[in-house]
Amino acid sequence: MIDVLVIGGGNAALCAALMAREAGASVLLLEAAPLAWRGGNSMHVRNLRCMHDTPQDVLLEAYPEEEFWQDLLKVTGGNSNEQLARYVIRASSTCRPWMRKHGVRFQPSLSGTLHLSRTNAFFMGGGKALVNAYFRSAQELGVQVRYEAPVSRLEIEDGRFVAAWVGEERIAARACVLAAGGFESNREWMRQAWGQNERGEWPADNFLVRGTRFNQGVLLKDMMRHGADIIGDATQMHCVAIDARAPLYDGGIVTRVDCVSLGVMLNRDARRFYDEGEDFWPKRYAIWGRLVAQQAGQIGYCIIDSKAVGRFMPPVFPGEKADSLPALARQLGLPEAAFMETLNAFNAACRPGSFDHTVLDDCVTEGVRPPKTHWARPIDTPPFYGYALRPGITFTYLGLKTNHEAAVHFDGRPSDNLFVAGEMMAGNVLGKGYTAGVGMSIGTAFGRLAGTRAAAAALQEAQHAAA
Ligand SMILES: Cc1cc2nc3c(=O)[nH]c(=O)nc-3n(C[C@H](O)[C@H](O)[C@H](O)COP(=O)(O)OP(=O)(O)OC[C@H]3O[C@@H](n4cnc5c(N)ncnc54)[C@H](O)[C@@H]3O)c2cc1C
């Protein structure tokens, strides 16, 4: 019998498989996706948030534990298990040498709208290179990997893992790590979770999924059926506003449009609905998906002028371009009179200041609602550009409750041989909100922990069986 069964093929699963194998366990990893699409959402990532007390290779200055924790506290509004969060934070300071050993390479961050060179270590070649390196290392170490192996259900007895089913095949193991992501790719579940709004719309029908199509939440649902303890709320998720032309799945990072803080954001009635300059973009980019989800038709339009060009990462698809604002309104299909009223009112409300996108500057509006509290400059210099944006879901937060040993819980009791990592438990640390790079910090810390615990549980059981 296999010692450790790992379910999933993303960062958390691979970290668990590698650690379990290094601890001497035999390991089988089951990935739902075919080889070409392996790696889940992890193939799209760029960086991981790391605590450090002094400058380290690609990381500038220092990012101490307390600051990392305060950043998490701010975005989650306190909806975070401090013990688990601090475990993740501390683990983020020591994981990089281990990652390098398994072939992951880092590079300094690019400059742009995300001011992350102090806090986040970027992967050379992005997430695709990271998962490829981990799969290569896992196979060299003797981890067995099976693709196109979606697990449909688990056998659990008295809170212990017994076996997993792939179609008609039963796979028993001494211990198991669940690392099969969230349920963001399951459109029917998203539809139920978001329900119908006061306009009679089903908002989730207009959501796009930034990552893999394979995170259907099948195991999360199965664990609910088994009575596992659940954490989080099905409508909490990381959701950014992305180019409305992005594909339904796997558009990845290039569909993000990073110019909101440099312009104005309108709904389909051509009205502004939120302060575009509330805070630095890395601290605010993840609120815009939900804000757009709340608008009629779940669509928003970001409008900039040529002064903004060159100050943000260029999106992969060019925006609509026009030499006048009325022409831009027509091209975007927005009501022209309302569009001009909003833009004229905004432009007239911009107070003179010293524009500086690298600080919370003094360019503000006066007399319009909502205000724009930084980087407010009249949109008056042609050509003008507009991007239609839709909610783009990164991952959901509903997950399995866990503890400092990464154990799955049943009625408050930790399982001895069933563990969880990554998006399937991220809600323990991230009840809501997000800070860039923390998804990988959580997945790496808990993936490694879950793999270690699963190997220990399996090897202990093997010893008992032999005695
Ligand atoms: C576009 C994009 C960019 C991102 N950028 C970053 C970033 O720069 N930094 C960061 O920290 N986070 C980022 N994230 C979030 C990050 O991807 C996740 O936090 C992290 O990768 C989660 O890892 P995971 O292993 O839990 O899940 P995933 O990587 O999604 O892996 C889940 C795996 O489970 C498999 N699976 C699902 N169901 C089954 C089943 N029933 N049986 C078998 N296998 C199954 C899937 O095929 C997949 O391989 C980004 C996400 C996206 C979509």
Indicate the structural class. alpha/beta
Which fold name fills CATH's third level, the topology of the largest domain?
Answer: FAD/NAD(P)-binding domain
Strand count, sense and barrel status of the largest sheet are: 8 strands, mixed
Fourth-tier CATH superfamily name of the largest domain: FAD/NAD(P)-binding domain
Count of folded domains? 2
Q: What global shape is seen?
A: elongated
Spell out which ligands are present.
flavin-adenine dinucleotide
Ends: how far apart?
Answer: 16 Å
The CATH architecture of the largest domain is 3-Layer(bba) Sandwich
Radius of gyration, in angstroms, nearest whole number: 23 Å
The helix fraction, in percent, is 25-40%
Explain how this protein is built.
By secondary structure, the chain is α/β, with parallel strands linked by helices. The chain has two domains: 2-182 and 217-230 and 399-466, FAD/NAD(P)-binding domain, CATH 3.50.50.60; 238-392, Succinate dehydrogenase/fumarate reductase flavoprotein, catalytic domain (Flavocytochrome C3, Chain A, domain 1), CATH 3.90.700. It has twelve helices and 19 strands. The strands form four sheets. Strands 1, 2, 6, 7, 8, 9, 18 and 19 form an eight-stranded mixed sheet that branches. Strands 10, 12, 13, 14, 15 and 16 form a six-stranded mixed sheet that branches. Helix 1 (11-22) links the parallel strand 1 and strand 2 (27-30). Helix 2 packs across helix 3 (82-92). It is elongated and about 80 Å long. It starts with a strand and ends with a helix. The structure holds flavin-adenine dinucleotide. Residues 7-13, 30-33, 39-42, 44-48, 150-151, 179-181, 210-212, 214-216, 218-219, 252-253, 394-395, 422-423, 437-440, 443 line the site of flavin-adenine dinucleotide.
